[in-house]
């Protein structure tokens, strides 16, 4: 239940909060090109609307109406998210994919593959390019507690902070064309990427694979999906190539799955 303060106490708290916000946040707003005057105007309009509502309906009814409108807006946001998921179903499924879903995308049991690569190796390090919310990363680290895991994405998401036991996962905002900038050469044993580099142009994909070869240890492998048939760059040998099950065929777009080894 939401606790409500009296009008005077609420106004006093609002003033304290706003004074602190104004004092410490105005420079932050300017750095992010947010107009402080616009923020003040929006706050004043909200306060004015609330005051008019209280004058017309009373404090209790005004609060009830405000809460009701908030619930409606939350429902609209949820509907918009659901419609977005329907429009971009494949991408959303991939972004939120766990191990079970990744196995279908890759057409291979990812955990078993990692286990076989890890056998007899110490300080085994995995890199995932395009981790999404990091669900698969969490599941892999839980199943293989001895591995070190680096998960990259184009932007941080709240789930990165919420996953329990994620101390062994290094979350990193990093583009696939800038891997060498933050990852040391010859430091990774296994790389996988589902849709993380799939839409790269042929030229960009070649550059990404060249960087992957730099950061991979000798004998290290990379498993990835590609929108088109890929020219294997020098320094790699093709371990396997296949296409996925029909449920992932997208007409003109079909995933091609490669497993390459650094030689």
Describe the protein in words:
There is one protein chain. The protein is about 50% helix and about 20% strand. With about 260 residues, the chain is of the alpha/beta class. The protein folds into two domains: about 5-85, no CATH class; about 95-260, Vaccinia Virus protein VP39 (Rossmann fold, 3-Layer(aba) Sandwich), CATH 3.40.50. The chain has a seven-stranded mixed β-sheet. The longest helix is centred in the first third of the chain and has 29 residues, at about 60-85. Residues about 1-5, about 85-90 and about 245-250 have low confidence and may be disordered.
Give the SSE map:
Elements: H1 7-31, H2 36-57, H3 59-87, H4 89-95, H5 99-106, H6 110-118, E1 125-129, H7 135-143, E2 148-153, H8 158-162, E3 169-173, H9 179-182, E4 188-193, H10 202-215, E5 216-226, E6 236-242, E7 256-262
Parallel strand pairs: 1-2, 1-4, 2-3, 4-5
Antiparallel strand pairs: 5-7, 6-7
Helix pairs in contact: 2-3, 3-4
């Amino acid at each position: 239940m939401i606790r409500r303060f009296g009008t005077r106490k609420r106004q006093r708290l609002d003033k304290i909060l706003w004074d602190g916000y104004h004092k410490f946040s105005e420079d932050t707003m300017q750095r992010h090109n947010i107009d402080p005057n616009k923020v003040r105007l929006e706050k004043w309009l909200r306060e004015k609307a609330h005051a008019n509502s209280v004058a017309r309906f009373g404090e209790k009814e005004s609060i009830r109406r405000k809460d009701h409108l908030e619930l409606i807006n939350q429902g609209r946001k949820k509907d918009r998210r659901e419609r977005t998921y329907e429009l971009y179903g494949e991408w959303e499924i991939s972004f939120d994919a766990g191990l079970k879903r990744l196995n279908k995308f890759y057409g291979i049991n990812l955990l078993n593959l990692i286990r076989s690569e890890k056998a007899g190796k110490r300080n085994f390090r995995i890199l995932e390019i395009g981790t999404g919310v990091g669900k698969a990363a969490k599941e892999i680290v839980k199943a293989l507690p001895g591995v070190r895991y680096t998960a990259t994405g184009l932007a941080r998401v709240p789930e990165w902070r919420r996953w329990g036991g994620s101390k062994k996962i290094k979350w990193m905002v990093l583009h696939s064309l800038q891997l060498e900038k933050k990852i040391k050469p010859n430091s990774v044993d296994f790389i996988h990427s589902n849709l993380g580099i799939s839409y790269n142009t042929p030229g960009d994909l070649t550059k990404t694979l060249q960087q992957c070869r730099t950061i991979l240890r000798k004998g290290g492998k990379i498993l990835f999906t590609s929108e088109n048939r890929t020219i294997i760059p020098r320094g790699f040998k093709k371990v396997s190539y296949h296409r996925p099950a029909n449920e992932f065929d997208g007409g003109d777009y079909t995933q091609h799955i490669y497993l390459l080894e650094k030689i």
